[in-house]
Amino acid sequence: MHPKALLDACSELVRLTLKFDHPADAIVSRFFREHRGLGPRERATLAETVYTVLRKKLLFDHFAPSGSGPKERRLAILGFYGPGDFLRSALSEQEINWLDQCEKIKPEDLMERHRHNLPEWLVQPLKDQLGDGFWPLVESFNKGAGLDLRVNDFKAKRADVQKELAALGIKAVPTPYSPWGLRIAGKPALSKMEAFKRGDFEVQDEGSQLLAMLLDAKRGEMVVDFCAGAGGKTLAIGATMRSTGRLYAFDTSAGRLDAFKSRLARSGLSNVHPAAIAHERDERVKRLSGKIDRVLVDAPCTGMGTLRRNPDLKWRQNQTAVDEMTVKQTAILQSAARLLKSGGRLVYATCSVLPQENEAIALAFSEANPDFVPLDVGEVLVGLKVEQAASLCSGGDNQQRFLRLWPHRHQTDGFFAAVWQRQ
């Protein structure tokens, strides 16, 4: 594709994405479906350009007014991924001069907001928690994420999958904390691989794998994944149960559960029962009250731990959304807790880095439910033989410790989890 046509396509995709009326990945996918003539390299360039614009939006908004032409074109030029010479043949002399001026500006001369590219409502909670770690976190958000796989140990061994990937020229290294994980660089076409078709592995962030480990579901138990979504954690839990007992995958989106069925078929698990529920107080939930051994509540959240992958979320969410989310999280956790029998385990988790959605919810739940005894996540992880368990936790000094994963410290998405046992 000629650089001019590619830049035009980038500009159009930037314009569509910055409406923020749908998630960025959905807009990019739809654009590719409507432009089937685009090759793999062109698609990669388009996607990378859009995601760079989303990551550095405040900086690019700062540079854009000094340029010329439509704003989305100026943003696309700034975000354009690839060697500068290729792009320059598509630019006017005026645009080349402007780009040269932008490239001369040193990061240390910029205002703080143009360096961190985060909305103001998000900055202070992160600085309060991390102090000097704030800037390394910003850097990790702007770098993008690698790709983690979870080996389905009901069917396959990690070392065997690693060898099979190596034979295809894909270097995979074991994840440091999860015993099921492999981390790979780049974005190979995994879905075409025989091992993927056989159900030997799934794509799943290492942090997400650790949530399934914390539940520690055993053979023959009755278990509920309360907000199953696309079912990644459900499959990990089903494998730890060795396809015995009953594992209910609840979600309010029948569409998400339908999409899960092909993954379930590949996995070889026969103990999983997907069920759409209307809300957290659904009749199906009430019928199981007091009968369940373990419940995972991976609650709907702002997703502020996934900004490496979903940089559009920081512009699509706001403080009001956070406040609304915490009301929903509190209600869902309270309803899910009713399912547990005496001695049962409850895990509450989010992929957010905001204390409001995490520690605040967990501490309020403990206070309101004295029959649920908080467990120390560090001790749970040590019991599961997880390496460097203490480094994965927050809290301590006579406080309950929680799972707290950070992109810049653990190379995972940002995750939180709290664990209780019902008396």
Mean pLDDT: 95
Strand content: 15-25%
The major pleated sheet works out as:
9 strands, mixed
Overall 3D form: globular
Number of helices: 21
| Helix/strand/pairing category | alpha/beta
Number of strands: 13
What gyration radius follows from the Cα positions, in whole Å? Answer: 23 Å
* Stretches with pLDDT under 50, minimum 5 residues: none
Give the helix proportion (percent range).
40-55%
Distance between the termini: 65 Å
How would you describe what is shown here?
The strands form two sheets. Strands 5, 6, 7, 8, 9, 10, 11, 12 and 13 form a nine-stranded mixed β-sheet that branches. The chain is of the alpha/beta class. It is globular and about 75 Å long. The chain has helices at residues 3-17, 24-34, 40-55, 57-63, 71-79, 84-88, 93-104, 112-116, 120-130, 134-143, 158-167, 194-197, 206-215, 232-240, 254-267, 283-287, 313-316, 319-337, 359-368, 377-383, 407-410; strands at residues 147-151, 172-174, 181-184, 201-203, 222-225, 246-251, 272-276, 292-298, 340-350, 372-375, 393-394, 402-405, 415-422. The protein contains 21 helices and 13 strands. 47% of the residues lie in helices and 16% in strands.
Please give a handful of descriptors for the protein shown.
single chain, 423 residues, alpha/beta, 9-stranded mixed sheet, 4-stranded antiparallel sheet, 47% helix
Task: Outline the fold blueprint.
Layout: H1 3-17, H2 24-34, H3 40-55, H4 57-63, H5 71-79, H6 84-88, H7 93-104, H8 112-116, H9 120-130, H10 134-143, E1 147-151, H11 158-167, E2 172-174, E3 181-184, H12 194-197, E4 201-203, H13 206-215, E5 222-225, H14 232-240, E6 246-251, H15 254-267, E7 272-276, H16 283-287, E8 292-298, H17 313-316, H18 319-337, E9 340-350, H19 359-368, E10 372-375, H20 377-383, E11 393-394, E12 402-405, H21 407-410, E13 415-422
Parallel strand pairs: 5-6, 5-8, 6-7, 8-9
Antiparallel strand pairs: 1-3, 1-4, 2-3, 9-13, 10-13, 11-12, 12-13
